[in-house]
Amino acid sequence: MNPILGMLKEHNISDQKISELFQALTENPLAAMATVSQLGLPQDKLQLLMGQVMQNPALIKEAVAELGLDLSKVEAAKKKLQQ
Alpha-carbon distance 78 to 6, whole Å? Predict the structure, then answer.
């Protein structure tokens, strides 16, 4: 299992909330940060999660694939961030 998904499940984040988070990440990565902060993760776990994403952005792509979401939206979101 993807380490991001594993951490979220470990903290009893529902599958629905996880899907919503990754949907937000694919549509508007900046707005998704607000969604992440509303999940109620302890600050140390939130920092660990963000560190993993920063060190290995491919984890988001892997998680999106695992959740069965549209990978083309991830690529579009990445391009938005680069502009």
Answer: 23
Q: How many other CB atoms are there within 10 angstroms of residue 49's CB atom?
A: 19
**Cα separations in angstroms, 74 against 11, 12, 15, 26, 45:** 25, 25, 19, 5, 24
Its pTM stands at 0.74
Residues 18-34 pLDDT 10s: 888 888 877 777 777 78
| Residue 14 in tokens | 């529902």
C-alpha 58/C-alpha 43 separation (Å) is 23
Provide the residue type at 69 as one letter: L
